[in-house]
Amino acid sequence: MEEVFGDAEFGAFPGESFRFSVKRVEGVGYIRLEHKASKRCWTCEMTDVGAHALEGATLPPNTVLQYVATSLRDSTKQGIHLTRGEGDTVLQLEVLVKSDVANMTWAPIYVFPLTLEPQKAMSPTEQIKMLTTQVQELQQEVKTLKEQMKSVLAPAKNQQSPVQVATLPSPGFTIRRRPKDPPTQVPPVRGNANTPPTPSNANHTLEKIAEFKYREKKDSPGTLMRRHRRHICKVCSALRDHRRTFQTSHYCVACTERRGGLMVFLCNKVRPHDEGEYQNATCNQIWHTMWGNGERMPKTGVSSIRMRKKLKTSEQSKTALL
């Protein structure tokens, strides 16, 4: 008889499950039960299967063992019982074997005592394998419980009545959005009757400072470091809001010449100004395009902006401040 194995549960062992195997090799029958959680095993080895029949039945051994395997697969049905002996060292398996002989139904009872196998010391590899198997079994049980929970909650969810949304009565008037305020017009600040007309922006280009090329400094190892001197940007100074202004080493040549040598330092990049109209424009674009080469500069911060002339060649060691 080929080996038959599977899972079984018994009413006398609630919440516990077993693995079983039934086989017959070279005239010797084997019934083995393994507890899934504790991994303890009980075995019944028999050479004479008929000796386990209470009524002296003489059914073929393979027929009896095949019926035992089938009953273990359907262990929840009547006809098979597992009882516990003292100290769990012996389990007794009772199986009702039904057979039709000469138009007669015969149902002898077979009793198989299963003895607890001594547990052997397991190697680390065997222990890891056993623990891995236990974890997989627990994961499968959790998955089964989740599916059962879904099947139970689905009908209850469908029976819930939809929530009725209360409708508010009409107030009797129409609520309209408040119109947005028109953009603030920047009033002209500079310019008088003697001010010459604003030149075109095409000739306004930025250049780096030529009079004071570098600021020299030695670092801790004694290496001489040079970098361009930097000055406060006019636009950043006008739009600052109690914060530190940005510095640059670029200036507008045309605006400087038009103001008689008063340096007009401008950033050639976008700065984080708060006003929305200035967010995507460089300081150079704000000064020339939006402020008309500085003639329409807003009032805010103008009092703190000073125009200073270029230092002469003899004064190259001094710093030009805005």
UniProtKB/TrEMBL annotation:
Residues 192-203 have a biased composition (Low complexity). Residues 153-203 are annotated as: Disordered. It comes from the Eukaryota. This is Uncharacterized protein. It comes from Phytophthora nicotianae P1976. The lineage of its organism: Eukaryota, Sar, Stramenopiles, Oomycota, Peronosporomycetes.
